[in-house]
Backbone:
C-alpha cells in the first residue's frame, strides 16, 4: 500500500495532544515577566491538583532521569544505606544513579517480566540505618507494575523515605501520594501528559525535605531547595522551557476536564483489551503475573525475532512500536496505552498485528484479535441492555 501515516505507539514519547502542540507557538514569553509568573504558577497548581497533593511540586528542564538524579543528589548523604527495588532496565538505572553518588544500595531483584513482591520489600525495612527506598511504579521495559500502595504504607512507618519513579505510572495506575506515604513521586512530560520530551517534575514531602537538611552530595543545576523557593514566586531558577510549560499547561487543562481517574481507567481498559487480543492470537504476555497498564509487553512467537514485528509495523503501516531493551531485545515487543491513546488506535494496531503475523506464516484468523479487543470495549462502554437487544 502506498500511503502510510505515522502512528506513534511507544511508551514514550507518546502521541501529542493537539491543543498542547498548538500552545507551544506562544512561546515568545520572557521568563522574567508577570506573564511567565502567571503561567508557571498555574501549571504548578494544576499539577498539584491532578496529583492530588499539597506537597511541593517542582518542574525541571530535563528528562525523567534528571529528576531521578536530583532526588538522589538533594536528599541523601554519601554512604547512606538505601534499598533499590529492581525489576528491569529502569530499576537498574536507580542502582546506577545511587552508586554514582556514593550511596550504599541493597538491591532487591526480580527476573525480567516479574515484579518484586511487596512482602520482600517490607521484610527488608528493618535493616539498620536504612535511609531510603527506590522503586519503579511501572517498569516500562517489561510491562510489569509494583504494589506501590503496600510498599508506601510500610515505608511510611520507618525513618526511610520512598522515592517512586512514576514516569509511566502517573496516568496509568492509582497513586495516592499523601494517603500511601509517597515521599518523592517523579513524572515526565512525554508519557501520559501527552507533550514532547524535555520536562520532568517531582513532588516532595515534608519528610523528604527533612532528609535534605543533612544532604552532603554535590548539586548545582538540580538544586531542589532553590527550585522550590523560586517556584513559590512563580519562577524557575534557570532559563525554563517556556514552550513545554505552555504545552503542559494546555495538556493539564485537558486532563482536568476528563479527570485523572478516567485517564487511568482509559489506560487500564486499553491494556485489558490488548491482553485479551494477544491471548486470542495465541501470543503470551511477558509480565503475566504483574501486568501494568502503561505498556503491554508481548513475547515474540517461537522462532521469530521481535525486531521483525517492530520493523513490519513501521514498514507496512507506519506504526512505531517498541522492541525489548537490553537482553530482551528480539524477544518481546511493546505496545503502549498511556496518554493520548484511544480504542480506535488499539483496534488498528491489533488489526495490523494480525496481518503481520499472517504475512510471516503464522496461522491467524483475521479479525479474531480485534474481536477480543472489541468485546472488552463493548462490556465497558455499551449498556448491557443494548448489547442483549442486538444479540
Residues:
Amino acid at each position: 500500500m502506498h500511503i502510510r501515516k505515522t502512528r506513534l505507539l511507544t511508551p514514550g514519547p507518546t502521541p501529542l495532544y493537539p491543543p498542547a502542540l498548538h500552545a507551544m507557538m506562544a512561546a515568545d514569553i520572557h521568563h522574567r515577566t508577570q506573564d511567565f509568573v502567571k503561567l508557571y504558577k498555574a501549571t504548578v497548581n494544576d499539577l498539584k491538583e491532578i496529583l492530588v497533593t499539597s506537597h511541593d511540586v517542582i518542574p525541571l528542564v530535563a528528562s525523567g532521569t534528571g529528576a531521578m538524579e536530583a532526588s538522589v543528589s538533594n536528599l541523601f548523604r554519601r554512604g547512606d544505606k538505601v534499598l533499590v527495588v529492581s525489576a528491569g532496565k529502569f530499576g537498574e538505572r536507580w542502582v546506577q544513579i545511587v552508586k554514582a553518588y556514593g550511596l550504599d544500595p541493597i538491591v532487591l531483584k526480580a527476573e525480567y517480566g516479574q515484579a518484586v513482591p511487596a512482602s520482600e520489600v517490607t521484610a527488608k525495612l528493618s535493616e539498620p540505618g536504612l535511609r531510603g527506598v527506590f522503586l519503579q511504579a511501572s517498569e516500562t521495559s517489561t510491562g510489569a507494575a509494583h504494589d506501590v500502595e503496600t510498599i508506601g504504607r510500610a515505608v511510611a512507618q520507618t525513618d526511610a523515605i520512598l522515592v517512586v519513579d512514576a514516569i509511566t505510572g502517573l496516568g496509568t495506575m492509582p497513586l495516592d501520594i499523601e494517603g500511601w506515604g509517597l515521599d518523592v513521586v517523579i513524572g515526565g512530560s512525554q508519557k501520559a501528559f501527552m507533550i514532547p520530551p524535555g520536562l520532568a517534575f517531582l513532588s516532595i514531602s515534608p519528610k523528604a525535605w527533612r532528609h535534605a537538611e543533612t544532604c552532603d552530595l554535590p548539586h548545582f543545576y538540580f538544586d531542589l531547595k532553590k527550585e522550590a523557593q523560586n517556584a513559590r514566586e512563580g519562577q524557575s531558577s534557570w532559563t525554563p522551557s517556556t514552550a513545554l510549560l505552555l504545552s503542559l499547561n494546555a495538556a493539564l487543562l485537558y486532563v482536568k476536564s476528563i479527570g485523572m481517574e478516567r485517564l487511568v481507567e482509559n489506560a487500564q481498559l486499553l491494556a485489558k483489551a490488548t491482553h485479551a487480543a494477544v491471548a486470542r492470537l495465541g501470543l503470551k504476555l511477558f509480565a503475566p503475573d504483574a501486568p501494568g497498564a502503561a505498556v503491554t509487553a508481548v513475547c515474540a512467537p517461537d522462532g521469530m525475532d521481535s525486531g521483525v514485528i517492530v520493523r513490519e509495523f513501521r514498514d507496512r503501516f507506519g506504526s512505531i512500536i517498541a522492541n525489548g531493551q537490553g537482553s530482551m531485545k528480539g524477544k518481546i515487543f511493546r505496545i503502549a496505552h498511556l496518554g493520548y491513546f484511544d480504542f480506535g488506535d488499539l483496534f488498528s494496531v491489533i488489526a495490523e498485528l494480525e496481518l503481520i503475523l499472517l504475512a510471516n506464516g503464522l496461522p491467524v484468523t483475521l479479525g479474531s484479535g480485534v474481536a477480543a479487543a472489541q468485546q472488552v470495549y463493548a462490556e465497558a462502554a455499551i449498556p448491557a441492555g443494548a448489547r442483549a437487544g442486538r444479540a
